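Good morning C.,

I know you're traveling, so I'll keep this short. The sequence:
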Amino acid sequence: MTRFVHDIFAKDALEAFLSPWGEAIPQMVVQSETRYIDLYFTPTDASVDVPMLGLLWKCAANGAAFEAFRCAVQDDEIRSTMGKLFNVHEEITRKAKQEDLPVPKTSDLPRLWIVTPTMSKKKLRAINVITEDNEWGDGVYLLSEMQRTGIIVVHHLPKTPDTVWFRILGRGKVQQEAIDEIEALPANSPYRDEALKLFVKLKVTLENRNDREQNETELMMKLADSPLFTEYMNRATATAVEAAVETAVATAVRSVHQDVVESLILKRFGSLDDDLIRVIPNIIKLSPLEFTPLMVDLSREELIDRFSNND
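The tokens, ready to paste straight into the viewer:
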């Protein structure tokens, strides 16, 4: 199913943007029946502000679990995901008791963020999201404090820089507009390169699938025409060429050094026997200024002894 492609993309994106600021655990194991949370994040320092991540950091700053859905989240998925969160809370409480520490207050427990592209008003009412005094803004809906769960409806989010790191997890036009916004960022903007690599990875993955949806094909074409993709390919090509040149130069240098060492050995000892041939690779790890005096001063036995086990 193609949704797993986007599950991986969502997990990779959240991990890439948050990992510099704390411990991001992809596929965290939840006890009891083995189940997994897409991403569980614990900040290194909760007092640090990371404004370039906008809403994403606001959600993650005090520790959080993220579950991202490619299609509109279903009732059973909400229940299952919240069940995993409660298992995490239970484990945190159990560990505190075992270590004779204060049991965390509800407000100190990590919050679950369910990321879904869409959700109907009817369903939002059915799960009793809090609508009064919502300081989180449009598109972010909280359940009761006891439930420690929030729902981010990506297609309800305002089109602002603060929300772009969630809007890249949307579908169709919403995701494509977010790509356009990231393209427009200055080349040195934080996380632009991370987003670039993630989009290229997504494009390649989609290209290798036969069961793409229409909007996924459109996304793939969008990425193929994107300056981000062209920029990445140009950079990758330049890096590959540079690496190839460096390898060729290094190979040529080693070849010249080997010729010099072989000539010195022949001149001093008259032949290249198997023992001497075996130590040549270790000798030429040195520079000519280093190995030339040794080749002149050391005896055959001393050369073999010195360089036979040189790693």
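Safe travels,
E.
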